[in-house]
C-alpha cells in the first residue's frame, strides 16, 4: 500500500483510538477500578475500513475527477497511468466507474 493511503488510514485509526481510550478512561474506568482488565483486540484484515470515500452523486463523481484521482493513485502505486487512462476513456461512465473500482476498490469506497 502506498505511503499516502497508509498515512490517511493510520491518521483516522489514531483519531478513533484516542476517542475510545478517552471515553474508556474518563467514563468507564472510574466506575469499576478493580473489575476491568484491559485486553488487546486483534482484528482480521477483512474488518479493515477504507478511509478514502468518493460520492459519485456529487462533484467528485465527475468522470474527469475519477480519472485524475486514479492517475494519482496509479503514480503512487507504481502502476501504468496511460493504460489506466485508456481503459477509463474507452467506454461510457459506467465503464469508467467499473474500471476505477477494479483498480482501487480495495481501498476506495464509492457511493451512489
Chain-wise SSE layout:
Layout lengths: L2 H26 L23 E4 L7 H15 L3 H8 L4 H12 L3 E4 L1
Low-confidence stretches: none
In DSSP terms, counting alpha (H) and pi (I) runs of 4 or more, how many helices? 4
Outline type: globular
Radius of gyration: 20 Å
Terminal CA distance reads 25 Å
* Major sheet description: 2 strands, parallel
Report the sheet-strand fraction.
5-15%
What is the domain tally?
1
Structural class: mainly alpha
Average of per-residue pLDDT values: 77
The order of strands across the largest sheet is 1-2
Describe this structure in words.
This protein is mainly α and 112 residues long. The protein has one domain. The protein is 54% helix and 7% strand. The protein is built from four helices and two strands. The model has no long low-confidence stretch (mean pLDDT 77).
Amino acid at each position: 500500500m502506498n505511503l499516502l493511503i497508509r498515512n490517511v488510514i493510520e491518521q483516522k485509526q489514531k483519531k478513533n483510538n484516542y476517542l475510545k481510550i478517552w471515553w474508556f478512561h474518563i467514563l468507564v474506568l472510574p466506575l469499576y477500578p478493580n473489575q476491568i482488565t484491559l485486553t488487546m483486540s486483534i482484528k482480521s484484515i477483512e474488518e479493515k475500513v477504507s478511509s478514502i470515500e468518493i460520492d459519485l452523486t456529487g462533484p467528485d463523481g465527475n468522470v474527469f475527477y475519477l480519472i485524475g484521482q486514479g492517475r494519482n493513485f496509479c503514480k503512487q502505486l507504481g502502476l501504468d497511468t496511460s493504460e489506466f487512462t485508456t481503459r477509463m476513456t474507452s467506454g461510457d461512465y459506467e465503464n469508467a466507474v467499473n474500471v476505477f473500482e477494479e483498480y482501487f476498490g480495495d481501498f476506495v469506497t464509492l457511493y451512489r
